[in-house]
Amino acid sequence: MHWAWQGAGPCLGTEGRDSKLPAIAEFDSVGLRYGTGAEVLRDLDFRLAGAGFYFLTGPSGAGKTSLLKLLYLAQRPTRGRIRLFGEELSEAPRDTLPPFRRRIGVVFQDFRLIRHLSAFDNVALPLRVAGASEEEVEGPVREMLAWVGLADRASARPPTLSGGEQQRVAIARAVINRPQLLVADEPTGNVDSEMAKRLLHLFTALNRLGTTVVVATHDVGLISATPGADLIRLENGGLVDPTGMLRNPPPERP
Amino acid sequence: MMLRWLFASPADRRLLGTSRFRGPTPWVIAIMSFSIVIIAATGLALANTASSLSDAIQARYALEVPNGGENLDALVATLKAAPGVVSVQPVTESDMRRTLQRWLGPAAQSANLPVPALVNFDVRTGTDVDAIAKRLQSIAPTAHVSAHRDRVAPLLRSMRALQWVAFGLVLLLSAAAAAAVVLAARGALDTHRFTIEVMHGIGATDLQVTHLFQRKIALDALVGSIVGALAGALVIAALASGASLAGELTGGARLPAIDLCILALLPFALTVLATWVARAAVLAALSEAL
Questions:
Q1: Which residues on A lie below 8 Å from B290 (Cβ)?
Q2: ipTM above 0.85, yes or no
Q3: Of the four listed, A94, A133, B114, B221, which is most buried by Cβ atoms within 10 Å?
Q4: Coil, strand or helix: which one is A245?
């Protein structure tokens, strides 16, 4: 396990991977405040390596969800710069953002499923938005629903699904497009340990195929079950360095 | 293709649910369409009536002799012989008295009531009417020749003013329909805010989202405006049939094929307007989010 560290130098921990991989996300002195309130994120300086696997941890209210919003382009920083996929997007015109969003899969804490659509249609949505034909949609969506154990619930609508089933639909929707960056906010919060293992297996499989994965979680078991992953810890809106070695990171965390 | 958005896939149609025609939009549009068709038909009928009247009296003059028709036969003969005069129609005294009876009652038949002599005549274009008038005055010095168009001019002016009022009302109603569509679009955006957020989050463009709403409002507007226009057409048909008092009043008004085509196109024009306004309203609202 590696600890994430600040600075514009090498990418955040990249155990088992080439640390010279191009960064998929770069934060440079990033701050965020909502309205006229206090900053909820401040002075964030870090880079996420392409094909990296990161856990984002920290106490409630530390700013994890806000950081994820910046990553999946639901929010602009109030200061600093963010580069995603090699492009400066902090102040990019809004009509240039959709193509970048299509390269990001997001698992929301509250699932964000469209209630009046079936599980199938919810999972198919990213493919349809990207312009896939119905023939191109049918197979992958059935396969993904089968993978998350919901093959027989394809026509069910979210209100008729349990919390765990809804979460699996949300995860299937997030990964159906083989995103380059997968962002998940507490993805195992509503699933049993067996399903959590399967989801983690899905995430690591996607990661091996080149997807950068960022998972916000309190689940220590999930973190410890992913030995190659790196850890980003947030407290009070800033990155912290629990080892005191942010500037001189060790090759491996003790 | 410009109209590709109109033919959304079933999956796209499911995105906004299946609540078509439940909202007030089709009904508001239907009322607007009904009113627009009636007012436009009235305006067109007025225009046609004014035009017919104007054409009919353009070359028509009246010879009036206030003290009666002692020399009427000589005057008529002079008129018939005058160059450029194509027709002469003396109005008989009995006809004059019958006309006056509408205002004066039985007193119009009184021998004490002096009734002027009146002769209508039509001339060819370019005829020297002043020369004819002088010739007539040499026979009856009190004879007076006047153009019908001068007498009817105030009526024609009123009719043309009413046409403009009708045109203005059509524009006002169209603007009101557009405002109703803007409100409907905003309401639909509020109702489907969550769906829009999810779609934006997974990379949908503003145009993709807009097309969903544009299509829904276009269909609502099309149905509403056709229903309204059909109702309007029924009323116009009833007025034009002459079966009612209104029919009698509009008996002189005609709607030729070109006007009927204009009226038939109005609901489609209203649909295009509603669709365009909905598109602009949705795009403007979406641009306020990231």
A1: 73-76, 94, 97
A2: no
A3: B221
A4: coil
Give A172's contacts in chain B (Cβ within 8 Å): none
CA distance B209 to B201: 12
Give me the residue from A102, A117, A134 closest to B14, CB to CB.
A117
Cβ of B9 and A121 within 8 Å?
Answer: no
Does the global pTM surpass 0.80?
no
First to last CA, chain B: 28
How many angstroms separate the CA of residue B11 from the nearest CA in chain A? Answer: 7
Asked if A120 has any chain B CB less than 8 Å from its own CB, the reply is: no
Cβ partners under 8 Å of residue A101, min gap 6 = A72, A73, B200, B201, B202, B203
Q: A47 is written with which tokens?
A: 């880079």
Helix ranges, chain B (H): 10-14, 25-57, 72-81, 93-104, 129-139, 148-191, 193-201, 206-241, 245-249, 257-286
Whether A126 sits inside 8 A of B203 (CB atoms) is yes
pLDDT in tens, A94-113: 889 999 999 999 998 888 99
What is the per-residue pLDDT across B141-189, written as a single tens digit (0 to 9) for each? 888 899 888 888 899 899 999 999 999 999 999 999 999 999 988 888 8
Residue environment code for B95-128, b if the CB has 16+ CB neighbours within 10 A, otherwise e? ebbeeeeeeeeeebeeeeeebebbbbbbbeeebe
Q: A173 to chain B: which residues are within 8 Å by CB?
A: 202
Nearest CA in chain B to A174: B202
- Is A184 in contact with A174 (CB distance < 8 Å)? yes
CB atoms within 10 A of CB B57: 20
